[in-house]
Write a structure and sequence with these properties.
12 helices, mainly alpha, 269 residues
């Protein structure tokens, strides 16, 4: 009985308000993000709030990558894209034809390996490791802008929480993208309008149409709200400008880098 009373006290702040449970935080991201993040801001940050949602997202992404490789049409497209990338590098003088042929051969062998149990493990682990690296970097960028430009009150951990909890929306996007990929028999990178039309590869028009993505807009909107509330900002507008500005400008950066370095082309959208 005494332990229960201690647990209740630990979950209350100085005003006597009870902290939301992890489940309430997750459901609140969907139903009342503004109210939910305002409530979260009243208590010390918890690692589980950002770690678990993002970990689940990366595991699901790794599983879907493994599942889609069993689709022969998708495998054919993946091999074709690899061949086109190396062919382009040969034309630009970045590698010889012999090197390109060897790279294509090694790539096809790797794809076959990735269809087995070892591939599943590698896909999931690589998704988690590289996913978290990107997660920490982008969170750091948000934190620096918020700290020095917007003068926010929150810590780096607050940015992690906002970014991590928003991952529950991205989980829906990844699952839906995986289902569409299997149904359509072609690789779907997102849930944007760009998937409904045929665009020239590397087209700037495709880049901007790819940003017409309801689920991405929803996720980034919730992220902006979360960052604003956790930094106790009176006005959320600067946070919306920051989040969507980095989304567009960061995407453009990788878009043009992808033209110079083809292996980065997937990051540009």
């Amino acid at each position: 009985m005494e332990n229960n009373e201690n647990n209740i006290v630990e979950n209350e702040n100085n005003s006597g308000e009870i902290e939301l449970s992890f489940t309430d935080k997750i459901t609140g991201v969907f139903s009342e993000p503004s109210k939910t993040f305002s409530q979260i801001a009243k208590f010390p940050v918890k690692t589980i709030d950002w770690l678990l949602p993002f970990l689940i997202l990366m595991i699901i992404a790794g599983i879907i990558r493994s599942v889609v490789m069993y689709n022969e049409e998708i495998m054919y497209q993946a091999k074709k894209q690899q061949a086109e990338m190396f062919e382009k590098m040969v034309k630009e003088g970045k590698m010889t034809q012999e090197q390109a042929d060897k790279a294509i051969e090694n790539s096809e062998k790797s794809m076959e390996i990735f269809k087995g149990p070892v591939g599943w493990v590698i896909n999931i682990i690589s998704s988690v490791v590289f996913g978290f690296i990107f997660f920490f970097i982008i969170s750091g960028i948000y934190f620096l802008f918020i700290k020095f430009l917007l003068k926010g009150e929150g810590s780096y951990q607050h940015v992690l929480v906002a970014n991590g909890l928003t991952s529950v929306i991205s989980i829906i996007q990844v699952l839906l993208g995986g289902i569409i990929t299997l149904l359509m028999g072609k690789i779907i990178m997102d849930t944007s309008l760009a998937n409904l039309f045929e665009f020239e590869k590397g087209s700037i028009v495709k880049f901007f149409v790819s940003k017409i993505d309801p689920l991405s807009v929803w996720a980034y909107s919730v992220l902006a709200i979360g960052l604003a509330k956790l930094n106790k900002a009176e006005n959320s507008k600067p946070y919306f400008i920051l989040v969507f500005g980095l989304w567009i400008l960061g995407g453009l950066l990788f878009f043009y880098l992808g033209k110079a370095f083809p292996f980065l082309s997937g990051f540009g959208g």
